[in-house]
Amino acid sequence: MGTILFYHGFGESKDGYPTVLQLLAEAGFLVVGIDGIGHGERRYPDFHERFPPIAPHLIGNMQLEAAFLSVVRETAQEVPFILDALIERGWAHPERIGIAGHSFGGFVTYAAVVIDKRIQVAASVVGSPEWRLPLAESPHLHLDRFFPTALLSQVAGNDTNVLPAFAQALHHRLEPYYTQAPKRLRYIEYPNSSHNLIETDWKQAWEKVARWFLAHLYANKVNGQPR
Q1: If you write DSSP's letter for every residue of 4-36 in order, what string do you get?
Q2: Domain 3-226: which topology?
Q3: What is the rounded distance in angstroms from the CA atom of residue 175 to the CA atom of residue 211?
Q4: Residue 205: is it exposed, middle or buried by C-beta count within 10 angstroms (0-12/13-18/19+)?
Q5: DSSP at 55
Q6: Which of 34, 51, 178, 221 is the most exposed place for a label (fewest CB within 10 A)?
């Protein structure tokens, strides 16, 4: 059916998402859970010193934001090499590659789409395409790099950690690029959830991700354009 790279939330690891990985695998995909830079099996030994717990007085801390975005950027830059290795081993087909991520992983998802055009389908849950620091790599600055990737963004309406307005704005700005295939662009907001989605929204979000990949990752192309 296709191969999906999956990226976890900030401070977590690939091993913390067995239910999500199993859901996507049972849908027929090879799912590759990956630890981001400094996380999981390659966690920074000084992780808590680099990234102190978020507290009200730290919100807006640009030094902390810069450290976070550095890890996002480095993790996304690995994606082409990971895809090369998977394709070489026969674990991925060059035309059936997807990526999904939660929170930190959502940031990585947007960045990876901009970096590697082999990604046909992408799904972010409470991630952001717009970075709070003026960095040239911020995905929202590269609108021409998204189409024809089928992009699903799911956000929380009451999220104060990752503002939903950033993903909403991206989708609005991308609409002219997707006039040939508008069904490949979808934005969903859960109005009753904060960054940590309530249980029903969490379950629904990942079910929608699975359906998104089923609808788009294995779809045949007609006349060179996605159906």
Answers
A1: EEEE--TT--GGG-HHHHHHHHHTT-EEEEEPP
A2: Rossmann fold (3.40.50)
A3: 21
A4: buried
A5: -
A6: 221
Amino acid at 110: Y
pLDDT, position 221: 41
128 Cβ contact partners less than 8 Å away, ≥ 6 residues apart: 106, 107, 110, 162, 163, 166, 167
Selection from 29, 31, 32, 33 nearest residue 1 by Cα: 29
DSSP 8-state class, residue 195? S
Average pLDDT over residues 41-51: 91
Q: Using DSSP bridges, classify how beta strands 225-226 and 221-222 pair: parallel, antiparallel or unpaired.
A: antiparallel
Torsion-angle region of 60 (φ positive above 0: left; ψ -120 to 50: alpha; else: beta)? left
Question: pLDDT per residue over 60-97, tens digit each?
Answer: 577 888 899 999 999 999 999 999 999 999 999 999 99
Give residue 43's Cα distance to chain centre.
Answer: 20
CA distances from 213 to 73, 102, 104, 160, 204 (A): 24, 16, 20, 28, 14
Q: Say if residue 148 is preceded by a cis peptide, omega within 30 of 0.
A: yes
Claim: this prediction has a pTM higher than 0.90: yes
Sequence ranges of the domains in the chain: 3-226
Q: CA angle, 207 as apex, 72 and 157 as ends, to 5°?
A: 60
Neighbours of 32 (CB within 10 A): 18
